[in-house]
């Protein structure tokens, strides 16, 4: 049973069946430091009680080398802020069955770094993810809109879209502005003058921290249900496959993803169509040390040209790593095409 809480958040639900307007209601926000404070059906996933939750992580330089500080879980009736600092490894370990379970759908926006942190810091392989960034792109494609290579919807942009949430940018910007400040005794120092990279490590959690953490998940269930209404069967398969591939994207190690779950196969109902979807894969390409900048090109010109020529996503670890690798996700033929073009750029390097 979760502990009592004086914190609350307003959570929108999909719509009023009569009027079509979002339904808002207040839910408690619980700060969790012990497994017993989490719902039993979350700690013990089962086919009989399948769940859909909003999910996010906060931390310091969130990646394999950073520190995961908080996991946010949004249920229809409550938001749980799982405090990894005070609860420690045993608390996160108690969440592992749920985070790896097929019976609990985790709705998240851009899962790559969160998944990487969970994998390398706690050995958790995030599974059954619905990534709203991926879903947004699929809906845009369904509706005939063309997305430029590398143009991914931000969470703030998704919130502002009236088709999914319609929350004013100013409301979200208010919370973001709080995160650009550092609180010192009797002083508020602007972020542009003084940064606080350890913001999420401070304890006890301040009102600002609780509000900011809750804001990142309280809209996700509403967005999820609205997106599910729009996605056709083919797009739903792409969503499942790409969610699985994006989750493991930066989690490369010496076993080449052998310990991860299988990628969802093409459903039978899609194989009887004239236009059968092609299998999608993740391919990791090694780049010669110190040559990544030349592969990407000046102001990204080389990689942009490759992305425009291939129907595949290409990611790089960047400053957070993993370094000297390119991650290519997409249909097999397009991944191989991107691989060949990238290798062609490398030939020019030697």
Automatic annotation (TrEMBL):
<feature type="domain" description="3'-5' exonuclease">
    <location>
        <begin position="29"/>
        <end position="232"/>
    </location>
</feature>
<dbReference type="Pfam" id="PF01612">
    <property type="entry name" value="DNA_pol_A_exo1"/>
</dbReference>
<dbReference type="InterPro" id="IPR036612">
    <property type="entry name" value="KH_dom_type_1_sf"/>
</dbReference>
<dbReference type="GO" id="GO:0003723">
    <property type="term" value="F:RNA binding"/>
</dbReference>
<dbReference type="InterPro" id="IPR004087">
    <property type="entry name" value="KH_dom"/>
</dbReference>
<keyword id="KW-0694">RNA-binding</keyword>
<dbReference type="InterPro" id="IPR004088">
    <property type="entry name" value="KH_dom_type_1"/>
</dbReference>
<protein>
    <recommendedName>
        <fullName>3'-5' exonuclease domain-containing protein</fullName>
    </recommendedName>
</protein>
<dbReference type="InterPro" id="IPR036397">
    <property type="entry name" value="RNaseH_sf"/>
</dbReference>
<feature type="domain" description="K Homology">
    <location>
        <begin position="279"/>
        <end position="347"/>
    </location>
</feature>
<dbReference type="InterPro" id="IPR012337">
    <property type="entry name" value="RNaseH-like_sf"/>
</dbReference>
<dbReference type="GO" id="GO:0008408">
    <property type="term" value="F:3'-5' exonuclease activity"/>
</dbReference>
<dbReference type="Pfam" id="PF00013">
    <property type="entry name" value="KH_1"/>
</dbReference>
<feature type="region of interest" description="Disordered">
    <location>
        <begin position="1"/>
        <end position="21"/>
    </location>
</feature>
<dbReference type="InterPro" id="IPR002562">
    <property type="entry name" value="3'-5'_exonuclease_dom"/>
</dbReference>
<dbReference type="GO" id="GO:0006139">
    <property type="term" value="P:nucleobase-containing compound metabolic process"/>
</dbReference>
